[in-house]
Write the structure tokens for this entry.
Amino acid sequence: MDAERQRFLARHPRSCALAQQAAGHFLFGVPLHWMRDWPTPATLFVRAARGAELTCADGHVLADFCLGDTGAMFGHSPPAVAQALAEQAARGLTSMLPDERAAEVGALLAQRFGLPCWQLAMTASDANRFVLRWARAATGRPQVLVFDGCYHGAVDDTLVDRDPATGATLRRPSVLGAVHDHPAFTRVAPFNDLAALERALVDRQVAALLAEPALTNFGLVPPQDGFWAEAQALCRRHGTLLVLDETHTLSSGVGGWARTHGVTPDVWVAGKAVAGGVPCAVYGFTEEVAQRLRAVKEAAPEGHSGIGTTLTANALALAALHAALTHLHTEATYAAMQQAADALQAGLEAALRRRGRPWTVTRLGARMELQFMPTTPRNADDVRRHLQPRLEQSLHLFMLNRGVLLTPFHGMLLCSPATSAAHVERLLQAFDDWLAALV
């Protein structure tokens, strides 16, 4: 690690200088403190990003397998989206009125993702907040349920932990400024555990189960065969709305994991990449749920519902969403992503066998995870037992110094339609060099 830190500093004098300058005006030297959550001795600053490549401030071109932590899943600045943004910028950015393409966008959302009714938000965090508010209002129930190890953005209700000894919901120590008693209104169950799920639902106090189809931000934990069919049946039996957050699982196929696997949730959420990386999120729902939402809104007094923000569904975001739904959410796009992911997975697994490392590559569509464990995890506790943060940091810094960008926080790799065989080969060569360098 010491050698790799020195190598980074020698290769990135411009980024180091920019980091010093930015420290005078930005908290932690960056406009969002997450941008320091990389294992680099100084922040890497970006000059440009196009397709599956990122150019840093020092002019080094990196093969990007982070892709904005999924925000740029379709590649950086997809041409169709970039053109739509340029054209719309000349016509207007926001008016708090629907753009004339809104009806067409609604029809495209229904066609792509299989639910008839939609609303927009700026981010998936916003969408999830709004959905939980709608669910509580429509059901009259106070509780929400999430899975241990879930990720649903900056939604306070979901930023809680599970006590492994008692199953009780705990405050998460890392969350800043929490004053409301979210553990009193959020239940946490282990993923892939149907018995625990039913215990959480049986008193009929849970308004919604908010879940990813697979855990994606705590390692990659896929659902076991038949899990979601049984989980949805339990939700229906106990009157709980099933909300699937596909912000990180859109890479599963056209329409996301749910459409690909024939699951129709009550509510479906996606953000980040859904509009090609432009700030935009969507949430869709069945006609039965739509009727319930209309009823609770019409029965409420006039005034702010606590749902929505001024820039939501602005004309610029709608233009990007229209372009993305038309040109990016297609079979051809996903075929290219899957082809690159096939080659990447095969190469990673071959390298692990060749070097005798008993580790696992877990795959979900064009997304995969290198996990320092012998088998695919079943739940978050499996991941916790095998965490090796120093090893992850070593991998990330070593790869970055050799022109390959991985996702910070964990070992996720994502292929875009712009990811080429050369990008995959560059990653595999650097990965093999890292394995050889390990003592």
Observations:
- The chain has a mean pLDDT of 97.
